[in-house]
Amino acid sequence: MPPELTEHQHGEITLFGLWKFLRMSFGLWNAARLLMENRVQDLSFVFVYIDDILIAMCPTGKYNGTGDAFINNRPNCEAECHCKSLPCLYSNGRCRDGCVTGWSGRSCYRREGDIDECEGTRGMDYDQDCHECVNTIGRYTCRCDQHYELDSETNRQCIVL
């Protein structure tokens, strides 16, 4: 077992780092103590079985992205956060201890000085023909619905195929 895991944790080392699973066999008796020791503060994805408790945790700097909580039996940790030292909450990316220098926003996902056009109003802050606004540093781009494609000249409008 890798040294980063305690006797109650299981993990899998992947291309993206260590996925931790806190497994407490017959653990309802010791669950409260182990939850406190491991500082699990986001209970959104705690799965309790008759003889097991499974807690999904992402590597530091990642949290649950959009879509399913698990992809291929692994926690969905596609979104990034930039918290000071504590991991961000698995379910929404919130930072309990604030953002590292240079980052801001609810999940510390935005570089300071960057304006998130996507938080604004469609047709005013970003293009009316943008189906899904995606903020990038200093600008934005769009994702388009089926049967549309991104205008290669602007990267900000969806046009019919």
From TrEMBL:
What are the entry keywords? Disulfide bond, EGF-like domain
**One GO MF term, please?**
calcium ion binding
Indicate whether Acetylation appears among the record's keywords: no
Recorded hits in SUPFAM superfamilies, A to Z, give: DNA/RNA polymerases
From which domain of life does this come?
Eukaryota
Q: Where is the EGF-like calcium-binding domain?
A: 114-159
> InterPro entries this protein is in?
DNA/RNA_pol_sf, EGF-like_Ca-bd_dom, NOTCH1_EGF-like
Q: What is this protein called?
A: EGF-like calcium-binding domain-containing protein
Q: Which organism is it from?
A: Capitella teleta (Polychaete worm)
